[in-house]
Amino acid sequence: MEAPEAPASSAPAIPLTQRATQVLGQFWAWLFLLILVVFFSVTANGFFSVFNFQSIAANAAILLIMAIGQTFVIITGGIDLSTGYIMGMVSVVAVSVMTALTNTLPVPLAVLIGLLAGLLAGLIPGFVNGTIIARLNVPPFIVTLGMAGIVRGLGFVTSGGMPLPVFIKDLGILGNGSLLYYIQRLGFSFLYPPPGLEGTELRQVTAILPHPVTLGLILVIVAHLVLSRTRFGLYTYAVGGNKEATMRAGIPVKRHLTKVYVVSALMASIAGLLYVVRFTNGVANAGEALTLDSVAAVVIGGASLSGGAGTIIGTLIGTLIISVIANGFVILGVNGFWQFVAVGIVIIVAVLLDQFKARLVK
Predict the structure, then answer these.
(1) pTM attached to this predicted model
(2) Residue 85 · residue 238 · CB < 8 Å
(3) Helix 50-75 × helix 83-101 angle, to 10°
(4) For the chain, which domains are there?
(5) N or C terminus of the chain: which is more exposed, having fewer CB within 10 Å?
């Protein structure tokens, strides 16, 4: 009589220290953001306040929008070094068109046409980037670096090398307004402060959800759903994970890569338009410092520079880390140049965690 078969052994339990290390490797950016908030709340007078948090979020909106587009590119294993100058060129084109049309068309129509012209101007370099990278197999670093020079030059030629102001009063109100306003005596008011306020009451109005923050949150939700719930997101991860295997599976890799770089340019263009309505001018190099910051935000958020990994929520956390550091240093009176040092250290830590994540979980 045959002996009964031994029951199949269950998978070995993961040691507690290994599980803790996995969690730390996955959520270290969240923990680091929390540590930053606690540190600056204790050391920087005025940091921990609703007004300051809204200020941080509003100032982070432009970087966040650019970083959303950069997330798609980095997940495919690429990089886009042209986004900052696309943003600047878009701002210049939009202001130039608005200014030219305000004397002949109603102001709202002139503004709308200017914004659309800027948006279209920004999509063109994105399409060219994607086409050359996808069809001619030129490294993304080289193509987007060259495109950065092109759009930078076009932006300076269009603006004459100077900032272009736009004298439309309601444009600044739109860019710096909020979705809701609240005052205890009158309650909430939508889009505009309660009418008839003067002096002390006007200073007591609390703005809730600045328009840049609202726009940033909408784009975060949309991009997150696209990456996690749609075929476009699936293809993006597949291309970054294994391009050759993705091509053999019948996925149109070249067409998809072109679309990804158009998405990156679209986000940079929206950032440029937001810059126009917030600061009522166009500057060719307005986004110069934001290109590498957008890459930093994506990497800090957990994306892999080799492709195939990354999330929009991670990019949001990375953006907030950079913005909180900048804000905290200003309140503490620390030399602003130390911000670059701090962000650089965080980037290196993020890359090291990405490179050695497999060793950390053993």
Answers:
(1) 0.88
(2) no
(3) 110
(4) 52-177+210-355 (1.10.3470)
(5) N
Copy the structure tokens of residue 299: 């990497």
Residue 334: CA count within 13 A, CB half-sphere: 16
- The phi-psi region of residue 162 (left if phi > 0; otherwise alpha if psi is between -120 and 50; otherwise beta) is beta
pLDDT string in tens for the chain (362-residue length): 455 555 554 555 566 565 666 666 667 888 889 999 999 999 989 889 888 998 899 999 999 999 999 999 999 999 999 999 999 999 999 999 999 998 889 988 999 999 999 999 999 999 999 999 999 989 999 999 999 999 999 999 998 888 899 888 778 878 888 887 777 666 677 777 766 666 666 666 777 888 899 999 999 999 999 999 999 999 999 998 888 888 888 889 999 999 999 999 999 999 999 999 999 899 999 888 899 899 999 998 888 888 888 899 999 999 999 999 999 988 988 887 888 888 888 888 877 776 666 555 44
